[in-house]
Each structure stands twice: as structure tokens, then as C-alpha cells.
Amino acid sequence: MTEHPNDTAIREIDEAAAPIIALDAGERSTHPKRVYVKTYGCQMNVYDSQRMGDALAAEGYQPVDSAEDADLVLLNTCHIREKAAEKVYSELGRLRDMKQERRADGREFLIGVTGCVAQAEGSEIVRRQKAVDMVIGPQTYHRLGEAVRRARSGETVVETDFPAEDKFDHLPLAKPKVTRKRGVTAFLTVQEGCDKFCTFCVVPYTRGAEVSRPLARLVEEARGLTEAGVREITLLGQNVNAWHGEDETGASIGLGGLVRTLAQLPGLERLRYTTSHPRDMDDALIEAHRELPVLMPYLHLPVQSGSDRILKAMNRKHTAAQYRAVIDRIRAARPDIALSGDFIVGFPGETEEDFEATLQLVRDVTYAQAFSFKYSSRPGTPGAELDDQVPEGVKDERLQRLQALLTEQQIAFGRSKIGETMDILLEKPGRKPGQLIGRSPWLQSVVIDQPIGEIGDLVTVTITEAGPNSLFAVPASSHMDKKQVS
Ligand code: 5AD
Ligand code: SF4
Q: Is-contact 163 139, C-beta < 8 A?
């Protein structure tokens, strides 16, 4: 199953986060130290791990891909749901044992916790696990180098404030060398934080207020990526479509304007963005979908619930009808757009009738892909204070029903592409020799067994088969030939 934009499969992230940092010769210290960054959670964490790796390269740290090989381990954590934080604590227990063994040999082993658990739990982490040397919240990553120096001299460092300076001004830009190793697709954080305060969500507390990075910096970073061979950029933000900035004339622009500017970059074949809020889908962005072929026809637009009563209790600031109206506008502008969404079942007070409204919305909208979660009470959020928590068994049962419907829709969407000819971007080798894996415009994995091109090429294929999670294809012309022969 494809990973959720805010919940990428951890194995996948480990591959992406750890071994990607290339050091410039000038950055190597005479005694190179080694860092392992383990990333949990969302794509923004993947991006942050890369930036942290770059910052540590400047301190003489080389990347390695396991804790066993490292002198410094950073757990870049996620706090969106309960289990994620618990996983971090059990991982910290393992790291403590490793640290004790190293210390017995007189060797250095530092443990840092970064990301949203670091922000939410702060010094509680060092209280609960004394082996931790550093706790660093997402808004203080530009101070990471200094924190590591302090930790190496024996200090326990907890940095979880929201400083006035912008960390992006102090972190190195995404490095072309780094991204070349990464492949043909890259993330680019354009906006961070959230001012929406949905009552279930920790993000406004862990990532802070909405901040947009300036247009010029983004263009510079995106140009670096495309010059290094990146063909597809996914713009990231917790509320990416709340991005706002100024163009060269000083006029205010939103994400539609940013996308329009980036679309002009030579070499950039595809642009995506995630995650959006229904209230911020403005006309300029919808027009960009109508007009820009580079903007892929895929939209992750969480709705969480189909019941107005629950939407209100969630403080989503829109009704189900308003969400449906946004979908109608976007489909009118880009009829082939595929939709993805997030759903929460069992929010406090959710009745069977409320849940039925969610199912009905799913039936009406139809999703190419979607992610559904049982409500998990997060300390410090207004939702955690609500009475009328839904019993676990009811949540389980609703989740199963919702997921059955969503899976059915996902399979139907895959099947609807059989026989269609489309461009896919070749991203990586497949499991079998000679096999390649690409992505459709609708974010589906496409497996191709015949020689067709190289990684990084945009090639035209015809879909022949659809599995539950991937499509299978042949080169478009060979399909035509076969048809003519038969
Ligand atoms: N419980 C369950 N799911 C949650 N999400 C966010 N907070 C919670 C929570 N407390 C889900 C939402 C969001 C996605 C990233 O995670 O659906 O869109
Ligand atoms: Fe959380 Fe709501 Fe903000 Fe999304 S919009 S990050 S769900 S508070």
C-alpha cells in the first residue's frame, strides 16, 4: 500500500534519510564522526532529516545507515498518533543498551531525539530515558550543530522553543549532490506549521504557527534540485495550500502563483503538493490545475469526517457540503484529477449516523486512494478533554467498514486505467533484473518488464494489468504492435 503523505512507511524513510548525504571534501574533518538519522512519520520529517544531515556534515559527521555504525543517533520522531511515540521510547531503550556497551569500551555514543515527539514531550524524554543527550524540536534544527558540540562536552541539551529567527535562513539548502543520490524525485518544504487548530491534532503545538518560506529561496532550492537531475518535486507543508508570498513585483501570491513560477524551471517535468486544507483551495490554485500540465492531476485533500456535527466538533471550519463543492470545482477544472483523503473514525461523540455520513461522502466523492485512522486522543489537544470517547471496539469496527469501502475504490481506480496510455516517470529498478518502476501521473506505481528507458526518463506506456497496489505496463508502441498482430 502506498504510504500516507504524513505517515510514510518507516523502512522506506530509513533508506531515504540515512545514506543520502554526500560530503564535500572540504567538509571532512580529520576525525570523521558518523551519524545515523532514523526518520519516523511524514515526508516533512524526511526532508528535515536531510537538512539535519547537511548541517551535521558541516560539523564533520558522515552519514551511516545503522545505529551500530554511528557515534550519534538521531531519532526524528512523529507524534501524530499514540503508537508512534511509544515506538520511539522502545527504540530509545535499545539505544540506551548500545550506549552502555560503547561507554564500557570508552567510545562516544550520543542519542538525540528530534521531531514532533521532541517538541511535545521536551524534557520529559530525558526524564523518562536518561541516556538521551539531546532533545531538539523542529523549529531549532539550525542550532543542531551547536547542540551536538554541547552534548559532546557532557551537557544534556533540550531545545524546544519557537525562536524568532527562521531556521530555514540558517540551514543549508537542499544540496544537489545529496539529491542526485536520492533519485529523480525530491521533496521541498515550502510551508510549515498550522494555525487551523483542529481539535484532534497536535501539529499546531509541535510545529508551531504557519510559516511560509519566501519565493526566491524556494526557486533557488528548486533550481538546484532540477540542475541535479530531479524531475519531480513535491512541495510540502502541513497546510501547503496556505503558502503565501510575494512575487518579484511585490504582489501577494498563493500556492497557485508559486506553482506557476516553479513550472517554468527547465528540466522540471512534474510538480505535486501535499497536504492541503479544503478551506485554502483558492481559485488561483484550481486554475493552475486547469492550465499547467506540469501540475499532476492528484490531490490529497483530507476531510476527516462526512458529518457536519463532527466536523464542527473537530473545528475543521467547513461543512461536508463545502468540501463537496471544492471537489466539484477542482473536477470541473481538471476532470481527470484523482483524489486522496484522510479520515478519522471514532472522534468523541461520533454516532453511527455520523459515521454513515462519512461512508456516504466516500461513496459520492470516490477516492483513488485514502488513509483512515482510529481517533487517538492526543494530550494537550482540545479533543482529549471531550467526554463521550468512542469505545475501542466500535472504532475498530467502523475502521474496518470504512477501509473496506476505500480499498474497493482504490482497486476500481487502478482497474480503470487498464488499456490507458500514459506517461510514467521511471524512478527505480524493480525486484527482477531488467524491471523498472515508474509513477503514473496519479501517483500509482507502474511496473514495466521490457526495456524502455533509463531511470529519470519520462516514457509512454500502456497499462495492461492492475494489482491492488501497482499497475503493470508495456511500452506504448509495443502494445500497439501486439494489437496489430493479433
Ligand atoms: N487521531 C487519529 N488520526 C489523526 N490524524 C491527526 N491527528 C490524529 C489523531 N489524534 C490524522 C488526520 C490527519 C492525518 C495526518 O493524521 O487524518 O489528516
Ligand atoms: Fe492538524 Fe488540522 Fe492543522 Fe491539519 S489542518 S495540521 S489536521 S490542525
A: yes
Domains of the chain: 5-167 (3.40.50.12160), 188-406 (3.80.30.20), 418-475 (2.40.50.140)
- Measured between alpha carbons, how far is 397 from 374 in angstroms, rounded to an integer? 10
Supply angle C-alpha 473, 479, 485, rounded to 5: 150
Q: Given this model, what pLDDT does residue 170 score?
A: 67
| Surface-to-core class of residue 79, CB atoms within 10 Å of its CB (0-12 exposed, 13-18 middle, 19+ buried) | buried
Contacts of 105 (CB under 8 A, 6+ apart): none
Contact 85, 91 (CB under 8 A): no
Q: Which residues of the chain have pLDDT under 50?
A: 1-2, 7-30, 176-180, 481-486
Q: Give distance in angstroms: CA of 299 to centre of ligand 2.
A: 16
**Residue 220 cell numbers, joined:** 533557488
Taking only the tens place, the pLDDT of each residue in 62-88 is: 999 999 999 999 999 999 887 777 889
The SS3 call for residue 68 is helix
- Residue located nearest, by CA, to atom 6 of ligand 1: 201
Q: Tell me if 476 is assigned to a ligand binding site.
A: no
| Alpha carbon of 316 to ligand 2 centroid (Å) | 8
What value does the CA radius of gyration of the chain take, rounded to a whole number of Å?
A: 23
Confidence at residue 164, expressed as pLDDT on a 0 to 100 scale: 60
Q: How many whole angstroms separate alpha carbon 414 and alpha carbon 465?
A: 9
Phi then psi for residue 468, to 5 deg, are: -65, -30
Q: Rounded CA gap, 337 and 289, in Å?
A: 9
Strands, sheet with 110-114, edge to edge from the N-terminal-most edge strand: 61-63, 33-39, 72-77, 110-114, 134-136, 157-159
CA 204 – CA 466 distance, rounded (Å): 39
**Ligand 2 centroid to 199 CA: how many Å?**
9
Q: What is the pLDDT of residue 82?
A: 79
Among 304, 344, 402, name the best residue to mutate to test ligand 1's pocket (greatest count of ligand atoms within 8 A of Cβ). 344
Cell, residue 383: 479533543
d(CA 33, CA 56): 10
CA distance 247 to 218: 12
How are beta strands 458-466 and 421-429 bridged, if at all? antiparallel
The Cα 177–Cα 36 span in angstroms is 19
Residue 6 Cα to ligand 1 middle (Å): 9
> From the CB of 188, is ligand 1 less than 6 Å away?
no
Is residue 265 within 8 A of residue 229, CB to CB? The reply is: no
Mean pLDDT of the chain: 89
Distance CA 420, CA 461 (A): 8
State if residue 157 touches ligand 1 by the CB under 6 angstroms criterion: no
